Structures are given as C-alpha cells and as structure tokens.
Amino acid sequence: MNKSIMYAVKLFVICAVATFVLAVTNSATAPVIEEAQKQKELQAFTEVFPGLEETKPVENTAVLSDNIVAVNEAIVGGKTEGYLYSVSSPVGYDGPITFVVGAKTDGTVTGLKVINQTETTGFGASVAKPEYAEGMHGVTLNQPLKAEGNGGQPDVMPAISGATRTTTAMEKAMNMVVEAHAKLVGSSTETTQK
Fold first, then answer.
1. In a 10 Å sphere around its CB, with 0-12 CB exposed, 13-18 middle and 19+ buried, how is residue 128 labelled?
2. Which of 20, 29, 50, 151 has the most Cβ atoms closer than 10 angstroms to its Cβ?
3. Is there a contact between 71 and 83 (Cβ–Cβ < 8 Å)?
4. Which residues 6+ apart lie within 8 Å of 66 measured at CB?
5. Quick one: which H or E segment has residue 86?
6. Closest CA to 140 of 105, 113, 186, 183
7. Cα torsion at 29, 33, 36, 42 (round to 10°)?
C-alpha cells in the first residue's frame, strides 16, 4: 500500500475517533451547561424584580425576536405585576451582551442584570458593574430611550464613557425592549434606531 494512502487512512481513523469523543462529551455536558444558564437567569430574575414570587412565559410570542429571546410575566401575590425580558443585544465591541431587565406593567424599570458579556476590560465591561444597573433606576419603557451620562431619567439610560459600541448596543437592545413592552401592554411606542 502506498505510504500516502496509509497515512490518509490513519488520519481519517484518528479524526473519526476524535469526532466521536467530542460528540459524546458535548452530549454529556450540553444539558449541564444549559441548566446552569437557566439557574443563572432565574437568579437574575429575582435580582431585577424585587418581591418576585413566580414567573411564567408570556402567551404573546409576537414580542420575541433574535434579540428579545424570552419574556416572562413577573408574578407577585398571584397577579402579573410586570415582565422579565431576556435580551441578547446587537453586537457590541466584542459580541452580544446577554442581560435580563425587569419592568412593572406601567413601564418602570425595576432592575437590569448582565448575564454574559465579552466587552473590553475597563471600558465596555463596565456594563456589568452595579453602577451601570443603578443608572437604570428611574428609566421607563414608555418612550424611546437615549443613552446619556448616568441615566436615571424616564427616557435616559446610562452611557459608558469610552465605550461607544457597547453603549450603542445596549441602547438598541433597550429600545427593542421598549417596543416589546408596548406590544405587551397595548400601547404604541415607536423607537428610532440610530
């Protein structure tokens, strides 16, 4: 047998075995990783919606998109008091930012928690700091939002100095949440994307 054919057969066998091992490993770890992600999200729900007792997915799936990946009712005392939005932002500086934002039915933001981000350390990564989330207090989902300064006003969310792409990604994502919230509560809000 020609040496190159023998090497090709050996390489094929090695690749087939490696592929099989990777497939088995992935099938064993994928459910564990998925469950850990769900637990992280559930913990974030309780952080962004104080007093939360239970959640249930909304029936109106028209509010879902590539960026608004899930919406749950925030139930307190047996009543829907607001909504929990699981969001994957448009690409920031180094990828999408995954976060959860809570809002009362009247549109008042109750909290924001970043789940995953890969933004630049010292700049865009500030989106995951508590100071950024604090800038969402006072923000409402009843009108288009703009990112300026420290946020904290009904139509102003926080901006991150030196991290324009991260700020823009979060602003776009939050305005998608504004639109989804309007669909859920039956109001009309039009946002202008930059």
1. middle
2. 151
3. yes
4. 88
5. strand 79-88
6. 105
7. -140
Side-chain-side CA neighbours of 91 within 13 Å: the count stands at 3
Residues 107, 140: contact at Cβ < 8 Å? yes
168 bridge partner residues: none
**pLDDT tens by residue, the chain, 194 residues:** 688 888 888 888 898 888 888 888 877 777 777 777 667 777 788 888 998 888 999 988 888 988 899 999 999 999 999 999 999 888 766 778 888 999 999 999 999 998 877 676 777 777 888 888 898 888 999 999 999 888 888 999 998 888 788 888 889 999 999 999 999 888 655 544 44
